Amino acid sequence: MSLYQVRQELKPYQGKALGIALNNSGAVIALPTGTGKTLVGCAWACELLNTGEVQRVLVLEPSRFLVEQVEQYYRNNTNIPVDKVYGIHPTESRAAIWREPVPLVVATPQVAFNDVSLLSFDTVIIDECHHTTGDYAYRKLLQAYHFKRRLGLSATIPDRLHATIEELIGPIHKWSWSDDEIKPFVPEWYGDIYDAELDTTEKKVLETLETIRNELRLSLIHI
Fold it and tell me: Cα(118)–Cα(110) distance, rounded to whole angstroms?
């Protein structure tokens, strides 16, 4: 019996995404909103920790609110011991968390980058990895610290960001609502709303709004 396990069965497309992630030192899994990309990350962490290939996994979330949410998700959906760290923790307590041999820690990229000299992780899960651009902490951390294995997760990755993300994390593998693998698991009305075809102007507007949303979310880290 494996030491670490997820507490729910993966759907076929999630299993396929997991296989891609396991077979590459770096990969990005882009699944539509609500189709379980976080569960894929959970399963990936379990598999790597069970094989002994890696010892510690760092999960990066762009805000402290998501750190709290995802840390609880890992607690509810796996039996991996988990801890969390973000800006509200004083330097001394952060150092203690980094030193503890907890297999998985959820953190904001800014705090991880600030404490980069204290990190001891060989593996990273970069959630909302479309933030890995420009002068943001995601990019700074990935440039400053070497991770043996890297998994990026996102629901939306604009085409203009592909090259940067693939350079820092790995090849991007995308699924959409229209994929036959996903259709059976999504209510028809859900796909109709989220997978409606956009024209060129609408796509530009969507990308602009996505950029603004990302910047606003990142700004919460510093509040």
Answer: 14
